[in-house]
Write a structure and sequence with these properties.
mainly alpha, about 70% helix, globular, transport, Battenin, transmembrane helix, Battenin_disease_Cln3, Battenin_disease_Cln3_subgr
Length: about 400
């Protein structure tokens, strides 16, 4: 659970932190004489915006794309070569990338530095998710539930911690520097707290590990050759060594029944988050526009945490049902943005919480049944390859959200 929390922490925090600093830099460019606050409200960029939706001039989907495209690239290509990199090296690299992202964004003096920091956070999160999901096959299946709970908690804790420190008067720069403790916790958790099974290749490549196992088997056969012939001949048809490229492609074809529903859930989910949330604004209530958006994000993360922690009590084999429900949710909220028929913010809060419940349930159930129904030899690769589903959906959602945001803001 702790590793899941640490892995996703930089990813979720960067969406808000990088946005704040980008807004600060834009404000400085527009009015050099104005002392801009580091935490900028949505209304800062809207003073000259006549749209009925009180639009932020920089769509949140733009930062989302910087936060997800490197992850998508890693998840598409890494499963074919990642077995050459030992797990210890992967985790160390992820921790360094996460720490670098916090440092870059906190000290950024230009837009490109902020975006580069977001990209580093994306690399850390993408490689970490792929690696830790593969790592679960070396432990009991209950570990997957802990991973799901940890990744869900990352969003909720990250949102509360970031907002709380900002509310306490700290700048985003100081807040991000404080959060450098998270990559350190990831390093300590993996290398000092996690009890690894003997079968886990820590600092050796997979090929070296297979060679060692074959050597041990041969030695055992030689030691036992004085008595009877061993019964291990029944396993002669079982392939040994790492999966071939053709085998990996065959496994990927079998994963589409899991990956496609997961991708649809995340496409519609992040279309709501990055394309519609900031447009669901209610005037003249006790919450400002920025506060409404923060509460939307917090309730979404709460729903994700609850559903990702539900695997022990509820398992959903037909994930496509969750895809359909999430699509209906997105269509309803899209119509609500267009025709403004929702009378109160509390209804939006309810739908956002429901959205998070659907997304978290789709994620944890998808990987539970992949782990349960995949052959032992293919399980480690399958868990890594299937993780592309959510990233692909999020990327498409970001691309769709940009023109949707532009359309509504032009009304």
């Amino acid at each position: 659970m702790l590793l899941g929390l640490c892995n996703n922490f930089a990813y979720v925090v960067m969406l808000s932190a990088a946005h704040d600093i980008l807004e600060k830099q834009e404000t400085r460019n527009e009015t050099a004489s104005t002392s801009a606050s580091l935490h900028v409200d949505f209304q800062v960029g809207n003073s000259s915006n006549s749209s009925i939706y009180d639009c932020n001039p920089v769509s949140t989907a733009a930062v989302l794309l910087a936060d997800i495209l490197p992850t998508l690239f890693i998840k598409v290509f890494a499963p074919f070569v990642i077995h050459k990199m030992p797990y210890g090296v992967r985790v160390l690299f992820c921790a360094i990338m996460a720490a670098t992202s916090f440092l870059l964004v906190s000290f950024s003096s230009a837009v490109w530095m902020s975006i580069l920091g977001v990209i580093f956070a994306s690399i850390s999160s993408g490689l970490g998710e792929l690696s830790f999901l593969s790592l679960t096959v070396f432990f009991s299946r209950s570990v997957l539930e802990g991973w799901g709970s940890g990744t869900g908690a990352a969003g909720l804790i990250g949102a509360f911690l970031y907002s709380g420190l900002i509310q306490a008067g700290l700048s985003p720069r100081i807040t991000l520097l404080i959060m450098l403790v998270v990559p350190i916790i990831m390093f300590i958790s993996y290398f000092f707290l996690l009890v690894c099974p003997p079968s886990l290749p820590q600092w050796r490549t997979k090929e070296t590990e297979y060679a060692a196992l074959v050597s041990e088997d041969r030695q055992q056969l030689l030691d036992s050759s004085d008595d009877e012939e061993p019964e291990s001949s029944t396993t002669e048809d079982q392939p040994t060594g790492p999966l071939s490229f053709r085998e990996r492609l065959s496994v990927i074809r079998g994963l589409w029944r899991f990956v496609l529903p997961l991708g649809v859930v995340y496409l519609t989910e992040y279309f709501i988050n990055q394309g519609l949330m900031e447009l669901l604004f209610f005037h003249n209530i006790f919450l400002t526009h920025a506060a409404q958006y923060r509460w939307y994000q917090t309730l979404y993360q709460l729903g994700v945490l609850l559903s990702r922690s539900s695997l022990r009590w509820l398992k959903i084999r037909k994930v496509w049902i969750l895809s359909v429900l999430q699509m209906l949710n997105a269509v309803f909220l899209l119509l609500a943005v267009r025709y403004l028929f929702l009378p109160t913010v509390w209804l939006v809060f309810t739908f956002i919480l429901y959205e998070g419940l659907l997304g978290g349930a789709a994620y944890v159930n998808t990987f539970h049944f992949i782990s349960k129904e995949t052959e032992d030899r293919h399980r480690e690769f399958s868990m890594a390859a299937a993780s592309v589903g959510d990233s692909l959906g999020i990327t498409v959602a970001g691309l769709i959200s940009l023109p949707v945001h532009t359309y509504f803001c032009s009304l």
